[in-house]
Amino acid sequence: MPKFYYIARNRSGAKETGIEEALNQEDAVIKIQSKGLIVVNVIPEGSESFSNASADTSIKVRFKPKHGRVTSDDLMLFCRQLSTLIGAGVTILMSLEIISKQVASRKLYNVCLDLKKSMEAGLSFHEALAAHPKIFSDLWINLVESGEASGNLAVVLSRLAAYLEKEAEFRNKIISALIYPLMLTMVGFGALLFLSLKIIPSFAEIFKSFDISLPWLTQVLIAISDFLRKNFFTMLLLAGAGIFLFRKYIQTKAGRLNFEKFQFKLPVFGEFMVGLNVEKFSSEMATLLESGVPILYSLEISGRSVNNLIMEEIIRKIKDDVREGKPMRDSLERSGFFEPMVIQMVSIGEEIGELPQMFKRVNSFYQEYCDTFLTRFVSMFEPFVLIFLGGVIGVMVVGMFLPIFELAKISG
């Protein structure tokens, strides 16, 4: 098998070299990346002296992108690789060149090239990022601007990468927790539809040949089954139209506001939705403040990023009060949205000058709260759904067998 010399950087930014056996250069890159390394150069054996290779040598491998969109995982990996390379002393331009050859997104590959081109034309890094608002949020742009101004770009990017990784982990926990209840519900209702559309009609045809009066339960089940069979596609169309109109409604400002109010007023789940929003707000505030972004800018960025109109309005009022010199504690308390624990911790953070650390603690608390809530919800939801479906299916089975019992009595 061919051998390939490689130069790479580990997560701490240290340079690593070695030899990797692979089928081709692309396979070698994949194997090296699987070790948690960022590839700088890959050279086939015999093509060039390894001793002459350096970190600034252009990569000879073109790693083919796997998809066209830019996912949160793509951005997370891009940020982590960028912070590692810059922290290791590699220039931003060379870092973008290196990363562009390893990204899995075709769009992000083109963005990397455009960023490099913009910076070569004289733009700063944050100005180059600002030209791609659909990919890089205000959080990215302001943190990078802060890092460039302070000369700590690698540190700021590392904090941003940690934030993105933490949020991705938290988001994946939520998705994983909700997948099982959703699948269980879909399978359960699929079984009910199968019984209603296939099994009950078969029994109904058999009962027609018997000269007996059907029990009321059997008659109700057959009537429901007939209704579903005759109107199934109409009901599907109505459901689809309802979902479409609902989505259109919540895309309007008034509809979205009413839907958010409804979410926050839901029993049990209302507190969970509040927790999710406070978690996101506290996470962004901690990252922004810790990176040196002024508090007014931090509040403005968090308000735009929270993706909730009610929360956005609350943050706007907090920002107005802070601009007037009022303590954040009073604004949080007046909003009626935050728990006393949050208000107290923010107040302490303002008094002792450790607001970023207090927001971190608030964030940790709400991440644990949301995680615990979902764990308990899943553990309670499973037996509830199983009992409900078991009861419904049991009633359907009994309803179908009652006429058979009647026939047995008559025959006896």
Mean pLDDT: 83
Helicity range: over 70%
Number of helices: 15
Largest sheet: 3 strands, antiparallel
The radius of gyration over CA amounts to 30 Å
- Element-level helix/strand string: EEHEHHHHHHHHHHHHHH
Q: Which CATH-level-2 architecture of the largest domain?
A: Up-down Bundle
Q: What percentage of the residues does DSSP assign to strands (E)? A: 5-15%
Question: What is the CATH topology assignment of the largest domain?
Answer: Receptor-associated Protein
**What structural category characterises the helix and strand content?**
mainly alpha
Looking at the structure, what is the overall shape?
Answer: extended
CATH superfamily (homologous) name of the largest domain: Type II secretion system (T2SS), domain F
Structural domains: how many: 3
Structure summary, number of beta strands: 3
Low-confidence stretches: 48-62
Observed structural traits:
three-stranded antiparallel β-sheet, 412 residues, 3 domains, Receptor-associated Protein, single chain, extended, mainly alpha, 15 helices
Walk me through what this model shows.
73% of the residues lie in helices and 5% in strands. With 412 residues, it is mainly α. The protein folds into three domains: 3-52, no CATH class; 72-136, no CATH class; 166-412, Receptor-associated Protein (Up-down Bundle). Strands 2-1-3 form a three-stranded antiparallel beta sheet. Helix 2 (72-87) runs antiparallel to helix 7, helix 7 (153-208) runs antiparallel to helix 8 and helix 13 (328-335) packs antiparallel against helix 14.
